[in-house]
UniProtKB/TrEMBL annotation, chains A, B:
Taxonomic lineage: Bacteria, Bacillati, Bacillota, Bacilli, Bacillales
Cellular localization per UniProt: Cytoplasm
Protein name: Beta sliding clamp
Main function: Confers DNA tethering and processivity to DNA polymerases and other proteins. Acts as a clamp, forming a ring around DNA (a reaction catalyzed by the clamp-loading complex) which diffuses in an ATP-independent manner freely and bidirectionally along dsDNA. Initially characterized for its ability to contact the catalytic subunit of DNA polymerase III (Pol III), a complex, multichain enzyme responsible for most of the replicative synthesis in bacteria; Pol III exhibits 3'-5' exonuclease proofreading activity.
Quaternary structure note: Forms a ring-shaped head-to-tail homodimer around DNA.
């Protein structure tokens, strides 16, 4: 195995593949990155037991880059990546397998690293057959960003640490919840697939990091694995097994009060209130309204102090007497995930969840559970 | 005590003063920031037992800002600073002492924080008499940045954790060393002072953070304290007591080889070599030269690999047979602190310190001790 490649091209590939390689993998060879020279392409593979990324670099177009000798090598990602990062830009680097070592040469810089045994490297899974379900990279990224933050950081129910992807009637719905808040985002998709899959957060993070937002991504769901494929990249991920809770019963069907408010102004107020709510287990912030139709946000911490502010909604419909306490941190995170400038809030009473939606848009919804008021 | 001030002005002051306020100070009141309204100025004070900063804000020029009622209050910096940070820009905030509480009002935002007892706040030291020694903010900043990194992070000899400032014959020399490397920077100053002072790193960091580089700073050294004063800021610092080692005996008087080299190229090479030197206690990197007059940098870690590269010096004078090992991390830090593009290296032999200077400049000097080669 011997190849010549631009340092910049290799840096970009390692930046994507390197992140999924674990420092302490279940089998030692997985601490390495696999470089495979096949015809006029370099295939860069990295992964652990949960996720693998395969990036293909086409060397045909560049007269200086080439696979000098076909073959495979595996080299520890830690040193290899750091070394390539520090190689000068706009230069050619030669990478050559020499028995158990890997020689890396770039101009007057000569390096040798110990290799790993490429025969120990596990085979990557087979891509499921068919054309897959096509989705624009930018839409996929948007949907993930609007939901993944709401998943449980840790939970005895493993399913809650992932995001539920539900395919039904030419629609994909992503749902994440930690039982105190929930984020939901749906979009139309050309597929007749019906099925539900729970994707680990790490997969979604790496997906957002590695895909080209301008490209279309093909998705291949299967029983235990989800595969994403773009022009030059394949990402395999295991799925979280288990049954995701049925969220339909917790989504409020009606509301007593509907308020439209400027998102930026509301977020600033919640973040100020959060300052004095941090001593409470649930970051208790209280939102109230009386007949004047103005929103009041308040929080307090005995010994430290209290904060209260008023803000003028854009519109109020329904019942004006309103008081509900909630976790201000969860509320702020929901608002931050919304791109739009106006949001609609729905209230069903002090012990009913609050619904947050971008104004005039039904594809995104956030639910925040009420908490017992601290005072 | 009551005042009206622009949120932006107060944010800027707290950004400087807030950093020197400790979360767990020796006396509880020092966890607060002191606001003092005197005539048409607000004086903002913060500090701990080692360092105090006093920032004066002149409210005369602004028609909307004013001291409504003269007086003093102390409020916990943690909540106050976070709260003011989150107040809208371009707004006026009213701060009012109400018995043991502090009321903070900004438009529709009303906050009350518990205050601290201003009578417990320790008196700030008296500024020593006289005009002080004047130095341009930019020069002071430059001198600090070129030396402070070389001080010991921790050492049984407390003096080595500071930077030695030596005034003599209208010159200020700053010296920092951790015994394995040394940084020295001198500059001419209009003063007939002769004396030596050891300044804590924290003081130097806060000084660089708080002073206006375009202003002149007046310095007032005294036996146990050093005072810095600019137009609107005073910084008091305790000094480190003890005798700083005499460094004159370790500065090489002659050299066998003088090399001029491009700093950027050398730094890149050292940083690559450092990658494979990190397992050694002293990050052993070896620099060598033979009759071809090229510099070779190398390092190796058994099990992992080795690196070697050549680089062409701009000029070589003297003995060409040369081999010396040193701590590559210290060498890289010295190079990074140098602004100039060319550096001069002087070598006296494999067991003599290496001298690094910006080319054709004698006011800055770095020394790196040799280490025993790892192979």
């Amino acid at each position: 195995m011997e190849l010549i490649i631009h340092t910049d091209t290799l840096k970009k590939a390692l930046y994507i593949v390197g992140r999924v390689i674990s420092a302490n993998p279940s089998i030692p060879v997985l601490s390495g990155v696999k470089l495979e020279g096949v015809k006029e392409s370099l295939i860069v593979t990295g992964g652990d037991s949960d996720i693998s990324i395969i990036k293909t670099i086409d060397l045909k177009e560049s007269p200086q880059e080439e696979i000098v000798e076909q073959g495979t090598l595996v080299v520890p990602i830690k040193y290899f990546h750091e070394l390539i990062k520090r190689m000068p830009n706009n230069s050619l680097v030669t990478i050559k397998k020499l028995y158990k070592k890997v020689q890396i040469t770039c101009g007057d810089i000569e390096t040798t690293l110990s290799g790993l045994n490429e025969e120990d490297y596990p085979a990557v899974p087979e891509k499921p057959p068919g054309d897959g379900i096509s989705i624009k990279g930018s839409l996929l990224t948007e949907m993930i960003k609007e939901t993944q933050f709401a998943a449980a950081k840790s939970d005895t129910r493993a399913v809650l640490t992932g995001v539920n992807w539900n395919f039904k009637e030419e629609e994909l719905t992503m749902i994440a919840t930690n039982s105190q808040r929930l984020a939901l985002r749906k979009a139309s998709l050309k597929t007749n697939l019906t099925g539900t899959f729970i994707l680990p957060i790490k997969t979604l993070t790496e997906l957002v990091h590695s895909i080209d937002k301008h490209q279309f991504i093909n998705m291949y769901p299967s029983e235990s694995m989800f595969t994403f494929q773009s022009e030059d990249l394949i990402l395999y991920s295991r799925l979280i097994s288990g049954t995701y809770p049925d969220i339909n019963r917790i989504i409020p069907k009606d509301s007593a009060t509907e308020v439209v408010v400027k998102k930026g102004r509301l977020l600033e107020g919640i973040e100020r209130a959060n300052l004095l709510a941090a001593q409470w287990k649930n970051n208790n912030v209280t939102l109230s309204m009386n007949m004047d139709g103005k929103i009041r946000l308040s929080s307090s911490t005995s010994e430290v102090g209290q904060i209260q502010e008023r803000l003028e909604p854009v519109d109020v419909q329904g019942e004006r007497n309103l008081k509900v306490s909630f976790d201000g941190k969860f509320f702020a995170e929901a608002l931050k995930s919304i791109q739009e400038e106006l949001v609609s809030l729905s209230f069903g009473g002090s012990m009913r969840p609050i619904t947050i939606k971008p104004y005039n848009k039904t594809s995104t919804m956030h639910l925040i559970s009420p908490v017992r008021a601290s005072s």
